[in-house]
Design a protein that fits this description.
The protein has a domain at 7-72. Helices cover 59% and strands 7% of the residues. The chain contains 6 helices and 2 strands, in the order ααααααββ. The protein has helices at residues 7-18, 23-30, 34-41, 45-71, 75-80, 83-100, and strands at 111-115, 123-127. It has a two-stranded antiparallel ribbon with strand order 1-2. α2 crosses α3. The longest helix is centred in the middle third of the chain and has 27 residues, at 45-71. It starts with 6 loop residues before the first helix and ends in a 7-residue tail after the last strand.
């Protein structure tokens, strides 16, 4: 039987979970079972509250880095890149802004095709375009 989680392991678990790692991903990183990771994280609401604080701190760090990077780009730098790179950059920036504001990044119609029944029936399209009402 493995020993209890050490304080350093607990802090690592919280940081990795806050950064988006799964129970399995964390378990591989610290050589513990996914069950142990899940049990620890869900054992006390204060732990999840702490994880949320770590997430906010990480988000702030990424935001600061993004601001530094964006403020270092001049109009001349933008003029040097091709249309594809400009479009890609604009899309990434728009998606990130929407994500940070808690909005869906979906901007167009989305369609899911499903089989109506298990036979060789034709596929039926269902429109699942976000309505903006959540």
């Amino acid at each position: 039987m493995k020993e209890r989680l050490a304080l350093k392991e607990k802090e690592t678990i919280k940081t990795l979970y806050a950064s988006g790692k799964t129970f399995c991903g964390i378990s591989k990183a610290i050589k513990r079972s996914p069950h142990t990771i899940k049990k620890y994280l869900l054992s006390d609401p204060a732990i999840i509250e702490n994880v949320e604080g770590i997430k906010e701190e990480l988000a702030g760090m990424f935001e600061d880095t993004a601001k530094k990077m964006l403020s270092s780009i001049s109009d001349a730098d933008i003029q040097k890149i091709n249309a594809y790179q400009r479009t890609l950059s604009a899309g990434i920036s728009s998606d990130k802004a929407a994500q940070l504001r808690g909005h869906s990044a979906a901007v167009g119609p989305v369609q899911i095709n499903i089989r109506v029944c298990s036979g060789a029936a034709p596929l039926q399209a269902i429109d699942v375009t976000p309505t903006g009402k959540e």
